[in-house]
Every structure is written in C-alpha cells, then in structure tokens.
Amino acid sequence: MQTLAFTFPAAAPPRGRALAGVVASGDLEVLLEPASDARITIEVTTSVEGMERTWAALFARLFAEPTRPAVHLQINDFGATPGVVGLRIAQAFDAVAQED
After folding, report:
1. What is the secondary structure of 23-42 as a DSSP string?
2. Which of 3, 8, 16, 75 is most buried as measured by Cβ atoms within 10 A of its Cβ?
C-alpha cells in the first residue's frame, strides 16, 4: 500500500462529517471531516503504485479555486478510476453541504 498527501487552500470549514462509498463497492471510500485551518488536506491510501501524478492532476482540477470548505479527506483506494474518485468526493461535499 502507498500513502500520498496533498494540501490546497480552502474557505471556512463545514459543520459536519461525511462518508461516501466503501472500499468493497466501487473500490473507494472518502471520509470527510472539518479541518481546523483554512486548508484542504488529503491523505490517499492506495493499492496502485505509481499514480501520484494522476492523483495530483485530479486534485488540482477539483480544488483549483479555494472556495471549497476546509476539510481533511481520508481516501482509501483499491484501484478506483478518476471518475469514481471525483464522484465520491462530490458526494461527500454534498453531504456536508446539506448539514450546513
């Protein structure tokens, strides 16, 4: 297993937490919790070696603007496609937006 870390600027943190997906279904889960500072921190644990550039490009596209809430994302991956990753992250952010 490989662990990757990424950080992006962000807005104010949300109030809630969220879980989207499970590793056994869609090969990916995203755990989202509020951050204590104005950053999005992402920790990816993946079984797929050598995909750092793909993960970095996906996150750079998703978090290019610092308008997302400040959160810590824990992503547990077992070979999901970038499309599934984007979908699960969107689901997690939608879940916390509904709580605010």
Report:
1. TTEEEEEEEEEE-SSSEEEE
2. 75
Continuous H helices in 1-100? 52-62, 82-99
3-state secondary structure of 82: helix
- Number of folded domains in the chain? 1
pLDDT tens digit sequence for 2-45: 999 999 999 999 999 999 998 776 589 999 999 999 999 999 99
* Half-sphere exposure in the Cβ direction for 12 (13 Å, CA): 5
Range of the domain at 14: 2-99
d(CA 22, CA 51): 20
- Give the Cα separation of 51 and 32 in Å (integer): 22
Output the six-digit token pair for 66: 């610092």
Q: Any idea which residue has 């990816």 for tokens? A: 44
Instruction: Classify burial at 37, counting beta carbons within 10 Å of its beta carbon; exposed 0-12, middle 13-18, buried 19 or more.
Output: exposed
For residues 71 and 39, is the Cβ–Cβ distance under 8 A? no
